[in-house]
Write a structure and sequence with these properties.
The complex is a heterotetramer, with 2 copies of chain A (305 residues) and 2 copies of chain B (271 residues).
Chain A lengths: L7 E3 L2 E3 L3 E3 L21 E7 L12 E4 L2 E4 L7 H14 L5 E5 L4 H12 L4 E7 L9 H6 L1 H14 L4 E4 L7 H10 L4 E4 L3 E4 L1 E2 L4 E2 L5 E5 L4 H14 L4 E4 L5 H9 L4 E4 L2 H4 L3 H15 L15
Parallel strand pairs in A: 3-4, 3-16, 4-7, 7-8, 8-9, 9-10, 10-15, 15-16
Antiparallel strand pairs in A: 1-2, 5-6, 6-14, 11-14, 12-13
Chain B lengths: L1 E13 L2 E8 L11 E5 L10 E4 L2 E4 L11 E8 L3 H7 L6 E8 L11 E7 L4 H10 L5 E7 L8 H6 L3 E6 L6 E2 L2 H11 L4 E6 L2 H14 L2 E5 L15 E3 L10 E3 L6 E3 L7
Parallel strand pairs in B: 8-9, 8-12, 9-10, 10-11, 12-13
Antiparallel strand pairs in B: 1-2, 1-7, 2-6, 3-4, 3-7, 5-6, 13-16, 14-15
The chains are: A alpha/beta (305), B alpha/beta (271).
The complex binds flavin-adenine dinucleotide (2 copies), flavin mononucleotide (2 copies) and FE2/S2 (inorganic) cluster (2 copies).
One FE2/S2 (inorganic) cluster binds next to loops of chain D.
Chain lengths: 305, 271, 305, 271
């Protein structure tokens, strides 16, 4: 049999395979370049970027929980100027699409940042984080209120002609309503899910373990919630979906595709295994070959009910 | 690099302290003292994250005694404090691990003419052994080893075999001098005012005290820090510590995993 | 030191210790009587009860997920009459408060059931499930809309003078709003959390594993979310809270108490270890003794921020 | 009962099939054939739930050979199909387990005068060995053992040592007769029309076929079922199966863990 076709497309971004790296878990790609071949994965999604450099939260910022971890990095990042000066030059040398994850503390910042990124030819698309639970000034509101979300999406849409992906929060009653609001406001694709808000406590010290008190839960623990949300949204509307949440293996990735995802992102798994994204992409190829499936796109939304 | 490793031995050297030797690829010998490894304890999700350990020792089996060519190995010395180290301690010869190593920035050796003062608190001693091995080749080395009680004093004979002069102290006086290791160090420095540089690893309060001593005596001083880590490669920003220029307005966070774990004490903010 | 005081009180229900068994994971108590001493735990909460016997969902109804499990039992239960005839006689012989978990398919059923239970002297209190995600006819709506929740709670309140506990769903944007609505409508105490809605997929069969497609996620995986919600509600209002979600050990239980819970429920842990509830209660006693704490109530909400 | 158990031995008896012997309290000897155990594979959350296995055998070490008095043990025979069984297969002598046993309702022995026909598909053979041991004391016993290929045919010699007459078949003909075990059974029944009762354990389609055969030949027939289980004690209602009176209006669900795993075939709804 011929080699199976692993390529997929997200609103014009052509990916050699459906496996991307999730924002905040893969730095700016370079950090992992000793451990995998960056040209064997579908796309690199960079750490959440803001207009100005951001210090993030005090430490501890991470803690392991059963089957998962909490993080409250607080979106520490170098800011757009240092990103262009220090991070893009390396990424330019890698023949893999770079999608920039971004967020703003205010509505205006989202717009301004999108405008700046629109001018960078190296940036294949934007992934807008309206769902980070750690930043009180905005994230949480935009991500849980359909009207506020629509407002951000609309503004960013007017600020860029690049493919526009909106990353949704799972901390909502009705993810389909949020998805709907974003698509109506101009989103080309949706990433789901971001982290679930959680908390961990140190009994002996009688204190929250994270300096930020609460943090975002990621890892295998959240996979069932993520799969459910991907499936709900894919049932409700025809928009390309990027599935995220606890993906550790090719099997996990393919389950998300059956549920309706066109591509997936690997997050926490990068910490367990820095070559995870490549291993998962190779595992998908293996699975297709073994099962006589010539094109991975056949699996998208192929769940039988 | 990332590699599969096999446990060669895993021995309890003191109650709750284990010394584990495991196979490693030949390139491991390029590791610099102070660098560390991240161990995936089990191919399962419990525990989820890798656990970081300093490199205690490195070596190569002599070919005369094995049929497998020159097998390189590395060693860690660890204390059982929770789930991950508990599981590690139950591993046997032949069990498998997945390792990232060597990670981070190690100790800078400095001027061989300087006397080298190593300060270890409890299991903070771990990375100092491989360091002492390297330093002792060209310099005079002294070790100040402290712990809460005699169970926390580890592998002193090994250091002495390298020709290191050792000074032991325990909080409760059950072994060596009674008191904090930094008190013993301070006393020594008051008497001996030759050129020297400090290398310290241990709990944060100890490191802070050592940094204070270094400042007062104007000595070069490197400290090896610990932090909760997820990625170990500078990507997740989970392990950060405040750099010397840090303020809320001008953030200066350093990654313990990538910019450290070893820092010159002046590069950090010690508040 | 004298034996520490483990007793707590939930709106008039006196518990010898704060450890109860969660509804649906402990049957009607008898199933576990070979494995633990039912008189060594705080209270027994029985399987969700409805007016009429209920068949529940087709199988498979359960599946293990990373650090947790999904269930879609569909509230199979014997109905109130068989409960009185077949289950209560055994429970009457056990000197431990029995709290009945109940749900209705309609508003009226909630009221009718509460009225019937109100007449049973063996029943120490009612725990109303407005949060079960498996039953389409009602559960999900009551549990995620503050107005609908207030309506149910109000009706049940008028139908019983027994202590009234409302069990909240975590599948909401703002759990504090739900809590507030329930308390204003007459709830004496709140149980949180019920399960998170999730999904699991069989890649090879290309089908959802659960016959019901989605199910409720429980177990250690959800503990961080549960702790966060308990803490949020306890910060926002002064109502007794029963903490539930992934409690496996005395340490877990005490963390929930620090976060603001007066008592806890042990669910999935009963499957891993049928004596879990007793072991956890004993572990709490040990912890108090070792740390010189004379009364467990000192720990309620004692988290330092 | 719930007890801590130590692995005595864990041997691969055929590719991917293991036979594990473990210590058990003396009361284990009261277990009835067909009852099962729930094993907590690890004291960790991965895997989370216990795994159910039929009791393959029970016994007591003769005191002459041990210093520990009369140590009772039980055995399971399992196939590695996923995470839990994979982890089980890596356990060694001396490793610990936590066990619930004996659980559920076992086989009813019935009239000793009846000939006993055991039908096992693949690892469904497991509970039939302990059953055969009991039945062979008073009755004539035949075993029909089927599998996809020769690797799935287990422990036939052990059955023969009990005096059981065995009939082996494989789907691919690599061992014994070629074809489904139920075809071989049906052929036998056509020839031998004496009084007999059936005891079957294996995949659901096989059990359904056996139930059909029992119906056509009007034979007493008990089947042992499998289901996903969480509690194992009838509390969670995760493992239910439709009873004979089941309809959407008149639900009649039985718990495989508590009302079973062994059922008289007429008590179930086979659609
Ligand atoms: C660069 C580096 C080098 C290290 N070298 C050594 C070494 O050589 N020998 C050794 O015994 N230990 C060393 N540690 C600490 C070691 O990583 C932790 O003790 C270990 O990860 C605990 O795992 P656990 O699962 O047993 O504990 P857990 O169950 O995860 O936690 C138990 C307790 O241990 C502490 N702890 C957990 N993780 C860390 C961590 N990453 N850093 C500091 N404290 C932690 C916490 O206080 C926690 O309450 C090092 C840590 C770092 C960052
Ligand atoms: C009463 C009873 C007695 C059993 N006796 C035996 C026995 O004697 N020997 C033996 O090898 N197996 C027996 N089984 C089946 C055994 O429990 C499963 O094979 C085992 O739990 C799989 O665990 P795992 O973690 O390896 O597989 P998982 O990773 O959990 O699953 C792998 C695959 O195995 C199947 N499976 C998982 N759990 C079950 C289950 N509870 N029942 C049926 N299929 C399942 C599923 O198809 C799944 O896709 C019995 C099951 C029951 C209910
Ligand atoms: C340490 C860490 C940092 C993260 N930072 C970001 C971020 O900057 N922007 C963002 O949109 N998501 C961020 N996330 C969320 C991930 O991109 C991803 O949505 C989430 O972790 C779930 O996937 P996983 O279970 O595979 O990790 C972060 C996650 C982790 C663990
Ligand atoms: C098999 C199963 C059945 C359940 N049935 C009910 C129920 O009938 N009513 C209810 O309010 N909650 C029910 N629950 C939810 C539990 O009571 C509890 O809220 C949830 O499992 C979280 O706790 P845990 O993580 O300790 O299991 C059920 C949970 C499980 C696992
Ligand atoms: S551990 Fe991830 S940045 Fe240091
Ligand atoms: S496994 Fe829980 S009722 Fe059978």
């Amino acid at each position: 049999m011929a080699k199976p076709d692993l390529s997929v497309e997200i609103s014009g971004i052509k990916l050699r395979n459906p496996v991307m790296t999730a924002s905040g878990t893969f730095g700016y790609g370079k950090e992992f370049s000793d451990y995998l071949d960056l040209e064997k994965i579908g796309a690199i999604i960079t750490k959440g970027l803001s207009l100005r450099p951001k210090a993030g939260n005090p430490t501890p910022r991470i803690v392991e929980t059963p089957g998962g971890m909490l993080n409250a990095i607080g979106l520490q990042n170098v800011g757009i100027d240092a990103f262009i000066g220090e991070k893009l030059p390396f990424l330019r040398t890698v023949d893999t699409p770079v999608i920039v994850n971004l967020y703003g503390n205010t509505l205006e910042e989202y717009g301004e940042l999108a405008e700046k990124l629109d001018r960078l030819p190296e940036v294949a698309g934007l992934e807008v984080n309206i769902s980070c639970p750690n930043v009180k000034q905005g994230g949480i509101v935009f991500g849980t209120d359909p009207n506020a979300a629509a407002e951000v999406v609309g503004l960013v849409r007017r600020s860029t002609s690049k493919p526009l992906i909106i990353k949704l929060s799972p901390n909502v009653t009705d993810v389909v309503r949020m998805a709907d609001a974003c698509v109506n406001a101009g989103a080309d694709a949706l990433s789901l899910i971001n982290t679930l808000t959680g908390m961990a406590i140190d009994l002996q010290k009688r204190r929250p373990i994270l300096a930020n008190i609460t943090g975002g839960l990621s890892g295998p623990a959240i996979k069932p919630v993520a799969l459910r949300m991907v499936w709900q949204v894919s049932q409700a509307m025809a928009v390309p979906i990027i599935g995220i949440g606890g993906i550790m293996s090719a099997t996990d990735a393919l389950e998300f595709m059956l549920a309706g995802a066109t591509a997936v992102q690997v997050g926490t798994a990068n910490f367990l295994d820095p070559s995870a994204a490549q291993t998962i992409a190779a595992g998908i190829e293996d699975y297709l070959a073994k099962n006589g499936i010539s094109d991975v796109k056949e699996l998208i939304g192929a769940l039988k009910i | 690099m990332q590699f599969k490793s096999m446990v060669i031995s895993n021995v309890e050297v003191s109650p709750a302290y284990f010394r584990m030797r495991m196979t490693a690829p030949p390139a491991i010998v390029e590791a610099i003292p102070g660098q560390f490894v991240m161990v995936r304890v089990r191919d399962a999700i419990d525990p989820l994250l890798r656990r970081p350990f300093g490199i205690f020792d490195l070596g190569t089996f002599p070919t005369e005694y094995t049929d497998c060519g020159r097998q390189t190995f590395c060693e860690i010395l660890y204390k059982v404090v929770g789930k991950g180290t508990e599981m590690l301690s139950s591993l046997h010869h032949g069990d498998h691990l997945d390792i990232l190593a060597p990670l981070g920035k190690g100790f800078a050796v400095g001027d061989p003419a300087d006397e080298k003062i190593l300060v270890g608190g409890g299991v903070g001693l771990a990375p100092l052994y491989y360091l002492a091995k390297e330093l002792a080749k060209n310099s005079r080395v002294r070790l100040f080893a402290g712990g809460r009680n005699k169970e926390d004093i580890l592998c002193i004979t090994e250091f002495e075999r390298l020709g290191v002069e050792t000074y032991v102290s325990t909080d409760d006086g059950t072994l060596g001098a009674s008191g904090l290791v930094t008190e013993v160090l301070e006393k020594h420095l008051a008497e001996d005012t030759g050129r020297k540089s400090l290398f310290a690893c241990g709990p944060f309060p100890m490191l802070k005290a050592v940094a204070g001593i270094a400042g007062r005596h104007d000595l070069e001083c490197q400290v090896s820090l610990e932090a909760y880590m997820a990625c170990g490669v500078g990507a997740c920003l989970g392990c950060v510590i405040k750099g010397k220029n840090h303020s809320d307005q001008t953030p200066d966070f350093r990654c313990v995993c990538k910019d450290g774990p070893v820092f010159f004490y002046q590069d950090l903010k010690w508040d």
